[in-house]
């Protein structure tokens, strides 16, 4: 085994734990917090867009239009580097959470809105026929059915978010990709280190994909054939 090969193996072994720790302490929490908040925002935004409140509906549509029409990296720059110019300073991790939450909320709202609209009108009529109000029908009949339709695309959004968190390095959050950059600056082996972090991301997303399939099968049990 050549000295160069031994050096590469040494770098891989030495960097694996720091990269994994960055993933556990920053990437995963950032993903979970952002997705949980974003999903709540997505549901609220979807319901507002389907409501009769014209002003709020217009504001919700404007929010979705702006977030979907601009790059996520630009949004992160505005939140972390731009807002201090108007006296609003946000720490790195909360700034990343806000950016990813807004992104999940916008894209997720369209998924949820489409799922609600895909529910047959007969379900609404059946709920009204037994005396339910619109809110009761939505909560007890429509949303549970829409949830089954929403699971696959929302799960894909969650997995995508794991990868998107690599953009948090632009606001100085030391997640996995940022840690890989730091280690690369020490060893000058970008191909090896970036490939290693890619493998760790692949492991994370593979585990999530497994649980996604399990979740989809669980919801399929309640779907009429």
UniProtKB/TrEMBL annotation:
Keywords: Amino-acid transport, Cell membrane, Membrane, Transmembrane, Transmembrane helix, Transport. It is a multi-pass membrane protein. One of its GO terms (molecular function) is L-cystine transmembrane transporter activity. The chain crosses the membrane at residues 24-50, 62-83, 191-211. Signal peptide: none annotated. InterPro entries: AA_ABC_transptr_permease_3TM, ArtM/GltK/GlnP/TcyL/YhdX-like, MetI-like, MetI-like_sf. Residues 24-212 form the ABC transmembrane type-1 domain. It is found in: Cell membrane. GO terms for cellular component: ATP-binding cassette (ABC) transporter complex. It comes from the Bacteria. PANTHER family: L-CYSTINE TRANSPORT SYSTEM PERMEASE PROTEIN TCYL (PTHR30614:SF0), MEMBRANE COMPONENT OF AMINO ACID ABC TRANSPORTER (PTHR30614). Belongs to the binding-protein-dependent transport system permease family. This is Amino acid ABC transporter permease. It comes from Paenibacillus psychroresistens.
């Amino acid at each position: 085994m050549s000295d160069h090969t031994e050096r590469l193996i040494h770098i891989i072994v030495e960097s694996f734990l720091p990269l994994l720790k960055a993933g556990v302490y920053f990437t995963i929490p950032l993903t979970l917090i952002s997705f949980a908040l974003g999903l709540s925002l997505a549901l609220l935004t979807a319901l507002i867009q389907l409501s009769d409140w014209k002003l709020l509906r217009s504001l919700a549509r404007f929010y979705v239009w702006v977030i979907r029409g601009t790059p996520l990296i630009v949004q992160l720059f505005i939140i972390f580097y731009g807002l201090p110019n108007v006296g609003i300073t946000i720490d790195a991790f909360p700034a990343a959470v806000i950016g990813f939450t807004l992104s999940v909320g916008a894209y997720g709202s369209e998924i949820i809105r489409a799922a609600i609209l895909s529910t047959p009108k007969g379900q609404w009529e059946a709920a009204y026929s037994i005396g339910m109000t619109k809110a009761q029908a939505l909560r007890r009949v429509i949303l549970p059915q829409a949830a089954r339709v929403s699971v696959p695309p929302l799960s894909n959004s969650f997995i995508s978010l794991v990868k998107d968190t690599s953009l948090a390095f632009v606001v100085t959050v030391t997640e996995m990709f940022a840690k890989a950059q730091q280690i690369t600056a020490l060893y000058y082996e970008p191909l090896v280190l970036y490939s290693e972090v890619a493998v760790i991301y692949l492991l994370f997303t593979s585990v999530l994909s497994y649980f996604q399939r399990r979740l989809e099968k669980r919801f399929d049990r309640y779907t009429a054939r």
